[in-house]
Structure prediction request, 279 residues.
Amino acid sequence: MESRLRYEFRNAELLRQALTHRSHSATHNERLEFLGDSVLNCAVAALLFQRFSKLDEGDLSRVRANLVKQQSLYEIAQALNISEGLRLGEGELRSGGFRRPSILADAFEAIIGAVFLDGGFEAAQGVIKRLYIPILDHIDPRTLGKDAKTLLQEYLQGHKIALPTYTVVATHGAAHNQQFEVECTVPKLDVKVSGSGASRRAAEQAAAKKALDEVMAAAPMLAAKPKRSKNARAAKHAEPEIVPGVKGVQEALDLRSPERKERAAAREAKAAQAAQAAA
Prediction:
């Protein structure tokens, strides 16, 4: 774990506690998680402030919220292989707690808290920077965290196209378990799609996401790449992940040990040879 964090603890007991779930023993990681949450928010806020000088307060808050939400922390925890060192009680082990996003995300925050106690804010900030700077290379701060309706509206407004209309066309199921079907229409581009969800809002979002894909396909001349910031990659026209899944996090952070990288390369080479032989 220390090699993946690129930080060596002076007090190894802090790391041990950070990896200990409350189901395992009375000395667990919840207080460290509380501390790490605050340190992480502060460090990520400072990183965004320095990196994206043209973003206003609202956009900075939106981006930070998405970078520190549970799913994002879970993906980082997966890339760090935190589950390998987790100390869980028997019940949590049997129920697959080492795979649970909330437990892994909390453990990551606890580790940040442990680094803070062990080495101070600068040490914790250094770990956070090493983890987040590669991730920031994979996002567009203008779109991260925006829902499909917002992205569709902004795209259409940017190209002077009338805004879409949303119409509930059907409801299915009993009153306590209804499914809504909503139609989204963009007349100028002859786009008409429908989406469903457990609420009208969810159905509208589902329809907007489909409409956004249709709009991009129907209007290639309008889909010129927007001017992007120096540090951002091309925007996706749907709510992007922090990076494309856990595998993408691992590639972005490059946290695998040299031995694991060599084994992975050997497996890939062997598979390629087998494919050539079969051909």
